[in-house]
Amino acid sequence: MLLDIKKEVRDLNRFRHILLVLFEEGFGYLLDKIKLKRHIPFKNRIKKTKEEISPAVRLRIILEKLGPTFIKLGQLLSVRPDLIPKEYIKELEKLQDKVKAAPFNEIEKEIEKELKKPIKNLFSSFNEKPIASASISQVYEAKLKSGDKVAVKIQRPNVKNIMKTDIEIMIYIAKLIEKNMPEIRKYNPTKIVEEFADWTERELDFRIEARNAKKFYKNFQGSRTIHIPRVYDEYTTPNILVTEFIEGIELHDIEKIKKNKLDFGKIIKNGFDAILTQVFVHGFFHGDPHPGNILIMKNNVIGLVDFGIVGYFNEDLKTKSISLLYGIIEDDLDKVADTFLEMGAVGEKDIDIDRFKFEVRDTIEELQEAKIKDVKVSGVLENVLDIALKYNVRMPTDFVLFGKTIVTLEGIALEYDPNFKFVESTKPFIEKLMRERLSPKYMMGNIIENASKFKKFISELPKQTTEALKKIQSGKIKIDIEDTDVKKLALEIDKSSNRLAYGIIIAALIVAGALVMQVNQPLIFGMPVISFISFLIAFILLIMLFSSILSERRLR
């Protein structure tokens, strides 16, 4: 067993220390199940934590004791209510990524090694006291030779090796849990740790954060409500990030905001508009909007900092999320339940879809009391994600990240104004998004895009069919036909062939119409006559196709 451990883990002393902390905090039963208890020395003399402490509290204490890498893992899990139960989320949210600052002489050496110049030749002034100190990095205030005031983010010495060692141990333990504990296997602990390893690797390369910051800067250039700090590329490396220094009040400091006569109501509205713009317009959003990363500047302008964690929304996720929010606004519980199910990836076992939808509707009805517009969106998301976890429906990571962002902002808004209503605040923006998606221009673009995908599918179909037939012929695929009514089967194949032919014709007409869209004359309803006729015929054939499918279903 020890030889196996040595193959997977380089630092056996660190490995034993982690096992010791787990044992001390009441997780001896876990070590027993995964056959690691034998590696704890003098376990009979170890004083264990009192039994009355809940497992969630114990987990938080363990992560705090084990240091920066484990605190980071806890923070990642705290934004994944689709992976772990609510009581654990609440406890992990208390984790604070604040550690004692490394001595400045060590930091100075790192800066000079990275930028290959003495610090006095790089900056006209450099405050040796950090303004922030976390597990991965420290942030300092400085001034460039040009006179620009900047924030210098520098990685802590040796942090990469420390985190790499800890992640190796995490992966080894996660594999043992999956192997020996089938009741936990469904949560994919190895995949969670691997996702954490990828996330950490990206966070440890400050060039990625610099790219993210520059993308946000471009997206909000010219905005009167959002300010993104400029990145100084010439001073940025994998271990150092230098950006414009932003002066502002942290969002949670409501008293200071009031004292400076800033309009908190306007700030919150601008904040929600900003996140909805990031998600549904840019498809790229800030994934770590805790109050320390949101600074309120003069004239109610919101300054965003720290772009290490970001989320992405593709068109499909945008459409489904807009549909979900619109369902909440319109008090359409069926739409909310259906959209949640469409978004999720169902696990290996089939689920009772009707029961899932019923529980989603039921939980929202419990929350809403009278009207859905009074519901706290945090309550909706938290309860529905609990149901998703229960039914093993995995929600997209980026949607969960977006949900966490909304919940954070709503929590701050409610702290300022207990009567704050998410629906009323965001309704104009969401209705505008819905109108845009129902506009002829957007729908036509969508049709053309889908036609292009359908064309590709049709062009690849003969090749894929031939490959499938070859596999059947060679005996690699076996097909058992239980229905002995060959005539019925032939009729079904005939119907499918007709529908496929209809589909090919519709796709061809749409593609043909799209190809001549650039022709200027003659025009009808703002588009070339040929395009209009092609789209019209395609639309009529599409209606006929849907009608035949629906009528057949009714006959059944």
Number of beta-strand segments = 15
Strand content: 5-15%
Gap between N and C termini:
61 Å
> What Rg is obtained from the alpha carbons, in whole angstroms?
29 Å
Low-confidence region ranges: none
| Shape type | globular
The description of the largest β-sheet is: 5 strands, antiparallel
What is the overall number of helices?
23
The level of helicity is 55-70%
Number of domains: 3
Structural class comes to alpha+beta
| Arithmetic mean pLDDT | 80
Describe the structure in your own words.
By secondary structure, this protein is α+β, with helices and mostly antiparallel strands. It has 3 domains: 2-97 and 161-201, no CATH class; 246-438, no CATH class; 440-555. The protein contains 23 helices and 15 strands. The strands form 5 sheets. Strands 1, 2, 3, 4 and 6 form a 5-stranded antiparallel beta sheet that branches. Strands 5-10-9-7 form a 4-stranded mixed beta sheet. It has a two-stranded antiparallel sheet with strand order 8-11. A hairpin with a 5-residue loop joins strand 9 and strand 10 (302-304). It is globular, with a radius of gyration of 29 Å. The N and C termini lie far apart (61 Å). The mean pLDDT is 80.
